[in-house]
């Protein structure tokens, strides 16, 4: 069975403890401290494996624990660093914190390899603590602990175009007709339980990736049936094709079906309704009604809303060329960058909390915030997005920076400068 989500436990390695020892040499009755530092604990790294396309492996192995760093040794010997544990995932896997549901990393686009949990730093040996007044320190620093986390893995397929619609309307047949995909096809409800991808090749080297999203039902956005399992795969698609049974072979109303699917998409993620859409009125070769034309009804209903309707037959191939080229032109009007889910969850390490920063008012009346902790935060936050800016605001509040700015006398409208970032302060 196609596996597109999994819950797994990950834990990075503990840093090795620093060592306490003293030199013992012939004719040197009181040798100095020579205890070495401990080695670093192993990181937990997630890496994209092009050969994987499901999360099935995580059904069998649910715990991933990196090794601890080696303890420091005598004669200033540094403990060995532990090897990182590399976890292979298919491209398109979103890693979330299980408790909050917030995104830690999206293994898509340029994000092929991500350190999810850092191993603990090794402790310092007693050789580091010798001073003129304490020449024989009998203590060393313990290694920093590793970090552990339950994460939710969600595979969201990467496709330019998504086929959506109720079960048994012909999505799988359409995909098999226009691409190299070979999904299993049969005349039963819920035949397709897996998303299928196919590459559509057009003349002149043009083309795009199309995904057959398994059939949706009313209530899918609330988790009815396998709703959430199906809907997550639509989120990366940049253009949507609504496939409907124009002939109403099962007594369904095509207009009502499209409205119902749109409602489920909007309930799940309102952003989906902003994607360009077209309607593929399928099974026109089975239309026998003499008094009304179902395609004309669909055009009258949806084309005033800017949604074009294309009569097709996925079985015979009629109308498919017009549909595919129209979709290709639509793709040119949207952002060509893949849909990447932005980082929302930052793992707080002991060392990070201790990174210093300063809050000062300069000669121009600007409040300047600087330090390695600020640089680190700005390095992984996309402030141009709404979620990224919310993450930035939360960081300022929880780190105590806002409180320090207020103690420094900042007022509404004053300018705050953080390296290349300049903004006005408002509560």
Description:
The protein is α/β, with parallel strands linked by helices. The chain is 19% helix and 22% strand. It is built from nine helices and 18 strands. It has helices at residues 171-178, 227-231, 254-268, 294-302, 320-331, 350-353, 372-380, 386-398, 401-407; strands spanning 5-11, 44-48, 63-65, 85-89, 93-97, 103-107, 113-117, 148-155, 161-164, 196-201, 207-212, 239-245, 277-282, 308-311, 358-361, 367-370, 415-418, 421-424. A six-stranded mixed β-sheet has the order 10-11-9-12-13-14, with helices on both faces. It has a five-stranded mixed β-sheet with strand order 3-1-8-5-6, with no helix packed on it. Strands 15-16-17-18 form a four-stranded mixed β-sheet. A hairpin with a 2-residue loop joins strand 17 (415-418) and strand 18. The longest helix is centred in the middle third of the chain and has 15 residues, at 254-268. It is elongated, with a radius of gyration of 29 Å.
How is this structure best summarized?
By secondary structure, the protein is an alpha/beta fold. It has nine helices and 18 strands.
SSE pattern, N- to C-terminal: EEEEEEEEEHEEHEHEHEHHEEHHHEE
Helix-strand category:
alpha/beta
Shape: elongated
**Spatial ordering of strands, largest sheet:** 10-11-9-12-13-14
User: Ranges with pLDDT <50 over ≥5 residues?
Assistant: 181-193, 223-227
- Which range does the strand content fall in? 15-25%
Top keywords for this entry?
427 residues; alpha/beta; 5-stranded mixed sheet; 9 helices; 18 strands
Write the layout of secondary structure elements.
Layout lengths: L4 E7 L32 E5 L14 E3 L19 E5 L3 E5 L5 E5 L5 E5 L30 E8 L5 E4 L6 H8 L17 E6 L5 E6 L14 H5 L7 E7 L8 H15 L8 E6 L11 H9 L5 E4 L8 H12 L18 H4 L4 E4 L5 E4 L1 H9 L5 H13 L2 H7 L7 E4 L2 E4 L3
Parallel strand pairs: 1-3, 2-4, 9-11, 9-12, 12-13, 13-14, 16-17
Antiparallel strand pairs: 1-8, 2-7, 5-6, 5-8, 10-11, 15-16, 17-18
């Amino acid at each position: 069975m196609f596996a597109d989500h999994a819950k797994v436990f990950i834990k990075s390695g503990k840093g090795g403890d620093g060592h306490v020892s003293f030199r013992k040499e012939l004719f040197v009755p009181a040798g100095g401290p020579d205890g070495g530092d401990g080695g670093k604990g192993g990181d937990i790294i997630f890496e994209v494996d092009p050969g994987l396309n499901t999360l099935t492996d995580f059904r069998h192995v649910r715990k991933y624990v990196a090794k601890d760093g080696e303890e420091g040794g005598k004669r200033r010997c540094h403990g060995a660093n532990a090897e990182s544990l590399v976890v292979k995932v298919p491209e398109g896997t979103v890693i979330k914190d299980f408790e909050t549901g917030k995104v830690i990393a999206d293994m898509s686009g340029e994000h092929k390899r991500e350190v999810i949990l850092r191993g603990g730093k090794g402790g310092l040996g007693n050789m580091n603590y010798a001073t003129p007044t304490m020449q024989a320190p009998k203590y060393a620093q313990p290694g920093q602990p590793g970090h552990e986390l339950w994460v939710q893995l969600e595979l969201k397929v990467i496709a330019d175009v998504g086929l959506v619609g109720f079960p048994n309307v012909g999505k799988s047949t359409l995909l098999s007709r226009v691409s190299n995909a070979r999904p299993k096809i049969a005349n039963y409800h819920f035949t397709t339980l897996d998303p299928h991808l196919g590459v559509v090749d057009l003349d002149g080297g043009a083309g795009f990736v199309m995904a057959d999203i398994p059939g949706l039902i009313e209530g899918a956005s609330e988790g009815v049936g396998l709703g959430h399992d199906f809907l997550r795969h639509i989120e990366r698609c940049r253009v949507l094709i609504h496939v409907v049974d124009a002939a109403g072979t099962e007594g369904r109303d095509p207009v009502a079906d499209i409205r119902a699917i749109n409602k489920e998409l909007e309930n799940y993620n309102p952003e989906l309704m902003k994607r360009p859409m077209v309607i593929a009125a399928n099974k026109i070769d089975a239309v026998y009604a003499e008094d009304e034309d179902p395609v004309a009804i669909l055009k009258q209903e949806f084309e005033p809303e800017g949604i074009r309707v294309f009569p097709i037959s996925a079985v015979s191939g009629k109308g498919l060329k017009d549909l595919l080229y129209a979709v290709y032109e639509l793709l040119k009007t949207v952002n060509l960058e893949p849909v990447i889910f932005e980082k929302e969850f930052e793992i707080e390490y002991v060392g990070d909390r201790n990174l210093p920063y300063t809050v000062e008012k300069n000669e121009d009346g600007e409040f300047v915030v600087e330090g390695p902790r600020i640089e680190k935060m700005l390095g992984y936050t996309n402030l141009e997005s709404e979620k990224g800016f919310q993450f930035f605001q939360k960081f300022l509040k929880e780190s105590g920076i806002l409180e320090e700015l207020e103690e420094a006398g900042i007022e509404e409208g004053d300018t705050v400068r953080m390296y290349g970032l300049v903004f006005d302060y408002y509560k």
